[in-house]
Amino acid sequence: MDDLKIAVMGAAGRMGRTLVSTIHEQNGCVVAGGTEYDGSDAVGSDVGQLAGVGTLGFAISSDTAAVINSVDAIVDFTSPAATVGFAKLAAEAGIIHVVGTTGFDDVQEAEIAKAGEKATVIKAGNMSLGVNLIVELTRKVAQALDEDFDIEVLEMHHKHKVDAPSGTALMLGQAAADGRDIDLKSRSVRVRDGITGARNSGDIGFANMRGGSVVGEHSVVFAGEGERVVISHIASDRGIFARGAVKAALWGRGRKPGMYSMMDVLGL
How many CA atoms lie less than 13 Å away from 119 in the CB half-sphere? Predict the structure, then answer.
């Protein structure tokens, strides 16, 4: 079987360069293109040279449609608006679309789900094995512990992150809500400021911190009377997300069109 040809959306960014390097090192796939926005200084540069892996023979392009139509899969950690556009093109081409972008609104989520009718879309708020394991643990612990245990989701990321709560924090909150069989949107508390009154039993709280170069830290706290259960994950290397995304792309080969998650990829 030929190597899976993968293009990286936003290939000149920090995550994009990590993805290029990871794909280049992984057996069974090759870097076959990269994109950046029109006007970026990176357009025209060799995608491999920017990532520090040597010349690969593919120039970063702003012609997204041409790149998508030339590959088997795209890996995308860009922005919600850009990802929606990529999803439509990937659906038209019938290729694999691995989505690591976070911060979508309901309309954008619906657009990506629509693309899943024609493309193999693998979408997750976090691509790492460890995070997806603690998501499942969170669901099980929430199911086991009743509302005498309050649930709080804490997260910290680097100062350049633009969305909050993080996609991973929302995954963890959703897992907790699923375990309790409650609706996350109606029971989540995103902001606390001023005289808020006592905590409502059964709510799921979120706290978001930003600073420095933190790759990602997440904890789910189950706080009861006289005891706390804490489930945590600390990411110190962006490579864990890139490796998960490449694993997802390879897993997607030959799959029917549809919406999949890292839980599907990992068999969880």
Answer: 29
Name the residues annotated as catalytic.
Answer: 157, 161
Q: Among residues 110, 109, 100, 74, which one has the least CA distance to residue 89?
A: 74
CB of 157 closer than 8 Å to CB of 210: yes
Cβ-count burial 152-167 (b if 16+ within 10 Å, e if not)? bbbbbbeeebebbbbb
Q: What are the φ/ψ torsions at residue 154 (nearest 5 degrees)?
A: -115, 135
Pairing of strands 150-157, 216-224: antiparallel
Backbone phi, psi, residue 149, to 5°: -105, 115
Question: Residue 189 and residue 131: Cα distance in Å, rounded?
Answer: 22
Give residue-wise pLDDT tens across range 186-219.
999 999 999 999 999 999 999 999 999 999 999 9
CA 223 to chain centre: 28
Cα 28 to Cα 122, 185, 188, 200, 251: the distances in Å are: 18, 40, 42, 51, 11
Token pair belonging to 10: 């936003």
Q: Please state the pTM of the whole predicted model.
A: 0.81
